[in-house]
């Protein structure tokens, strides 16, 4: 083939002429760079390759990381690994080989990405998020993504979302807002974990997380400062009362002094808040994680104390009284998973009291069917959104829309097995959830989310909107 035939076949002369004319019209200071970018934009972006690997999450447990390639770049994402279980949640695919990573390896999920998902998605436009996600759902064919693995599907879905944003040359949160139909971005109120308990720490506290919400901050940047100062003051309070050993941290970075009493731990947090000087501007939230200590229809508050376990059972009514008293005595504005995942009736009763936001976790598993039922039956009034429970970006967007249509609050949430991937920060802003919990202002896999929110706030500048007092319904 001659040079002229090659030029004619690919219409290069016409394309180059168009690019040169565009550079002239734009009076480009660097015409070569302008022409290069102009030509690049003229090429349709498609997925060319997807490569997965096994990496470790913040607990030292394997998870799936994906590099998604287009003809214009490479985009990386990692799936977080969780512990929540429920019949309606998406299922992570684990190897089950006891001799490797105690059965928690993800080589099968990695293989599914490299051999099945990659083949199905090559040639697709990364800006078409819903089509990509649906292609993976169709390929899996199961109800819970158990064939390919929700960890495999989610990592690819997030990587595709990043590629779509890059192709549109917009920030990730803006791309998410666009595909979800949102018109404005909102920086969420962070729920900082100050004290860890439950299955997240080795102390005797039954509740999983005691958090503070800087609702009264004027910006996310100030909220970050307030949360960090509360965390550091709490460290000093715990050290004074329990010694340095009480300042050990749990999986999500919260301190884990050996306390079992709700009131004792809340008193510690209140003293730390008082020391910050922000007393009227900081509220408290609790993630009880009650499913972990429900036995039959009763709750064992000493389930972590071998010598006491079984001696301190509470009924659902007893727990109702406990939460009611705690909300009277402390500035608690949100309680997550106050009862067992199957205890819909007591969850409804607490919601009807209207004393705080009642957040469904294992009760809902971020599943649209469960959310719809809970809205119809007035079971709770907020959704905690965990990406691993739902499996794709598109389904996460749909779940948030459903919750907001039901006038619910939405809490974008980390999970126990987080990675340094900061995707949920952009997701929270793009979907205007109004709330995000990413753990303590401690540990890199938690701070990656908060630091990304600081960057987004800086990028938005005067256009930045902090949820603040509108944290539930921004």
TrEMBL record:
Gene Ontology terms: biological process: glycolytic process
One GO cellular component this record assigns the protein to is: phosphopyruvate hydratase complex
Cross-referenced Gene3D superfamilies, in alphabetical order? Answer: Enolase-like C-terminal domain, Enolase-like, N-terminal domain
Residues annotated to bind substrate? 200, 209, 336, 361, 413-416, 437
Uppermost EC category: lyase
Identify the EC number(s): 4.2.1.11
What SUPFAM superfamilies does this protein map onto?
A: Enolase C-terminal domain-like, Enolase N-terminal domain-like
Gene Ontology terms for molecular function: magnesium ion binding; phosphopyruvate hydratase activity
Domain Enolase C-terminal TIM barrel: where?
184-474
| Alphabetical list of SMART domains matching this protein | Enolase_C, Enolase_N
| Signal peptide boundaries | none
Q: What is this protein called?
A: phosphopyruvate hydratase
